[in-house]
Description:
It holds the Pfam family NmrA. It comes from Leucocoprinus leucothites. This is NmrA-like domain-containing protein. GO terms for molecular function: oxidoreductase activity. It contains 13 helices and 14 strands. It has helices at about 15-25, 35-40, 45, 60-65, 85-95, 110-115, 120-130, 190-200, 220-230, 240-250, 255-270, 280, 290-300, and strands at about 5-10, 30-35, 50-55, 75, 100-105, 135, 140, 145, 170, 175-180, 185-190, 210, 215-220, 235-240. The longest helix is centred in the last third of the chain and has 14 residues, at about 255-270. It is α/β, with parallel strands linked by helices. Strands 3-2-1-4-5-6 form a 6-stranded parallel beta sheet, sandwiched between helices. A 3-stranded mixed beta sheet has the order 8-11-13. A 3-stranded mixed beta sheet has the order 9-10-14.
Amino acid sequence: MPLRIAVAGVTTGLGHAIVSALLDTPDLEVLLFTRSCSSTKDLTHFTSRGAVTKQVDYSSIPSLICALDGVDTVINTISPFVDPTPALNLITASKAAGVRRFAPSEFAFSAEGNARLNLYEPKRRTWAMLKQSGLEYTSFHNGIFMDYFAFGAPKPHEGPLYMAPFFVNIAAQKATIPGTGDEKITFTTVNDVGRFVAAAVKFEGRWPEKFGMVGETTSYNQVVRDIEAVTGKKLEVEYLNKESIAAKIEESKGDEVKFFLSQVLDVVASGLGTVEPTLNKLAPHITVTSVKDLISKYWST
């Protein structure tokens, strides 16, 4: 009998990648939780492949319990930053509905790196509740989305991921690198994240508390060399030492986005941007995309 998997947050780029990978995986029944009918209409490319949409009210635990009937695993990709209520209610409803496994909206650095980011406080609140829930759970970690290197590329990026230049702007031929640039950092494409999550769903053993996945663990200096090798153009590189980063953190207080990005600079400069390749070892059949492969795909002439 197919495992029934519910995905919350299917209109994001990450949610799309996970759903697509789940639909490519045999013996799974995929439910797409959506807040509105209009979102349902936008998901025909998934429903045509067998996915089932369910309109839910994340403020209503009874509504969620009903929608979760027969579900084995919940994958949540809803951002908790504006309002953690959907995630917290999903956990409560999952326990009441008899769901076995729950994956919260993590998908970032390791726990050590994430602990330094104030914006991730709602994630920590969700995690604390999940640990008390009695559900089987895991935290997916993938580092930085490698896809951000496609920002401004002549070839359009696949999927609805919100694109931004994350410290490296290939189109502008500029890079702002935290630390010395030799600190190790993990990058993974959203498509590879989706495939690893699908593999984890099929994992027969009990989920560990952490599931790391790695496209490539490299350094920003090596990324710059890869970009220059592919594009044939020199990047203007600015290095930020710890003192400069500390000043940025102090100056950006009051601006949530700038403060978050400044703290990310600190995480990377402190060497806390890497992820353990737990899922790579458990799913060796998954061939991952390297940084140079991704850059070549979007920037090679």
